[in-house]
Amino acid sequence: MTRAVEDSNRRLLRARDAMDLTYGHPLDIAALARIAFVSEAHFIRTFRAAFGETPHRYLQRRRVERALYLLRCTDRSITDICFDVGFSSVGTFSKTFHQIVGESPTEYRRRAEILAVPTCFAMAWTRPSSFGEDGRGSTR
């Protein structure tokens, strides 16, 4: 791997880390592209090439991952969780949640059980995949 590729990957990782820290805020592609020192269009293309999904889809998945935890471990309302993880409407949250997890937030909460297993196993097991049932990466 060349030095230029390593630098590019490092900048993309910094931008992804910024997304992880600010998942509850609206996505600002311009700011993320500045972190990666590239144009907005180039950022979206290189992010997708590096991580297998667009920045928008990555952020949606991270928000749903956080919602999964809150649904399992708290008794807060689904509406509160929706807004806390960064969605601006319950309808969008429910639709996105269903696309990623395969069931509604209500259904997930109803069947979710806290398992007595190491946290690393629980997190790996409950992490939603960005791949659809056909095994190909999502294009959304």
Descriptive terms for the model:
single chain; 140 residues; mainly alpha; Arc Repressor Mutant, subunit A; 2 domains; 66% helix; 0% strand; globular
Q: What's the SSE blueprint?
A:
Elements: H1 3-21, H2 29-36, H3 40-51, H4 55-73, H5 78-84, H6 90-101, H7 105-111, H8 119-126
Helix pairs in contact: 1-2, 2-3
Tell me the series of helices and strands, N- to C-terminal. Answer: HHHHHHHH
Output the CATH homologous superfamily of the largest domain. Answer: Homeodomain-like
Q: Can you count the beta strands? A: 0
Based on helices, strands and strand pairing, what is the structural class? mainly alpha
Radius of gyration: 16 Å
Low-confidence stretches: none
Q: Indicate the CATH topology of the largest domain.
A: Arc Repressor Mutant, subunit A
* Number of structural units classed as domains: 2
Distance between the termini: 30 Å
Helix run count: 8
Please tell me the overall pLDDT. 89
